[in-house]
Specification:
This protein is α/β, with parallel strands linked by helices and 366 residues long. The chain folds into 2 domains: 182 residues, no CATH class; 146 residues, Glutaredoxin (3-Layer(aba) Sandwich), CATH 3.40.30.10. The protein has 14 helices and 7 strands. Helix 4 packs antiparallel against helix 5 and helix 8 packs antiparallel against helix 9. It is globular.
């Protein structure tokens, strides 16, 4: 699937803060938000992990990220099944890794992140012991709010200004909370408050880091010998999937050329992964010729068998990923950077600068 109007998703990615406490450009957008939550530095800090736990925690996520990435472009049923299994595995292993107090705190933060939807989960429903009319009313209020939220997302994807939409969303959630609170008895409100635990600043979320998949070497490179993500440690990597016959990809070329010049003497590596869609794009010689004609001087991995496309779970041409100096995916822009007036070029450039300013060593409690 070419970019088409799906680049509007990137506008929505910046609005996700309205709809989820974890607003970063999540490559697993639409997946269980609990997965992103586990990758949040603020959560690791809140759990006050020991040095040993911190290494184990990060190691577990790194291992499971490699299984999670390929799910991104799978059919919904297969992706949901795979994600559920991975999250269940993570939960079991984290329960063994963390103290009871730490594991309980993680559950509390998850409940806060989920907001009112946590009230409809099986475990909470059992604790609440709802009467049938109560549960029916809760389901109605929460589903109506969700539908209204999706309408805001649609408007955001169509380019409406974010400010007014944020105000609408804030009022929407305030109304939902008022209605939900009115449905619950005092005793049920107490149970809910206990499940939420002490306060946690949800605004500290939005900075997840996912272990980037290692490159699958096809043996065919342009402008470079074979590279690996491991060998690129210490560099900010701008990795983009493209195909030379894709018009939306070609529209991104001027931005890549600007970055190629702007970051030439800095710790930035622009890395193209050419994954073919058409028969003509299968020809390696044509890939090299087109790159030369376009003055693309950065390394390009020819992904003829789509091995890297599958490893990353990529689903559209073009897609641009930003990987930090430690090898963790931090930002993602699906589609054409300037689609219909979008400012993805500036958005990504700002984040490149931010990642450049970070140290190459691990972030605190990450």
């Amino acid at each position: 699937m070419r970019c088409l109007r799906l680049a509007a998703f990137a506008v929505l990615a910046r609005l996700v803060v309205l709809c989820s406490p974890s607003p970063a450009a999540d490559p697993f957008f639409g997946a269980d938000p609990a997965w992103s939550l586990l990758h949040e530095p603020a959560v690791a800090r809140e759990l006050t992990l020991t040095a040993t736990q911190s290494r184990q925690f990060r190691g577990l996520l790194d291992e499971l990220d490699a299984k999670f990435f390929p799910l991104r472009n799978k059919p919904r049923e297969e992706a949901t099944k795979g994600a559920t299994e991975i999250l269940a595995d993570a939960s079991t292993r984290l329960e063994a890794m963390l103290s009871k107090a730490q594991f309980r705190r993680l559950a509390e933060i998850q409940s806060r992140q989920q907001g009112t939807t946590a009230l409809l989960q099986a475990g909470m429903s059992t604790l609440m012991n709802y009467k049938a009319p109560q549960k029916e009313r809760l389901e109605t209020v929460i589903s109506e709010t969700l539908a209204a939220t999706r309408e805001l997302e649609k408007r955001a994807s169509n380019g409406e200004p974010r400010g007014p939409l944020e105000k609408e969303y804030s009022k929407l959630k305030q109304d939902e909370l008022r209605k939900v609170t009115g449905v619950l008895t005092p005793a049920q409100r107490s149970v809910w408050q206990k499940a939420l635990g002490r306060d946690f600043d949800l605004k500290s979320l939005g900075h997840p880091a996912f272990k980037a998949p290692e490159l699958v070497d096809s043996g065919e490179w342009v402008n470079s010998g074979p590279l690996t993500m491991k060998a690129l440690a210490g560099k900010v990597v701008v990795l983009h999937f493209y195909a030379f016959g894709c018009s939306n990809c070609i529209h991104n070329y001027p931005t890549y050329l600007e970055w190629q010049e702007q970051f030439r003497d800095k710790d930035v590596v622009i890395l193209g992964i050419h994954t073919p869609e058409t028969a003509a794009e299968q020809d390696s010689a044509s890939v090299k010729t087109k790159a030369e004609d376009a003055k693309l001087r950065f390394p390009i991995l020819i992904d003829g068998t789509k091995a890297n496309w599958k490893a990353w779970g990529n689903s559209m041409w073009p897609s641009v990923y930003l990987v930090d100096k430690r090898g963790y995916l931090r930002h993602f822009w699906p589609g054409e950077l300037k689609w219909q007036g979008a400012t993805g070029d500036q958005w990504m450039r700002d984040h490149i600068e931010e990642l450049l300013a970070e140290p190459a060593s691990a972030r605190s409690n990450d």
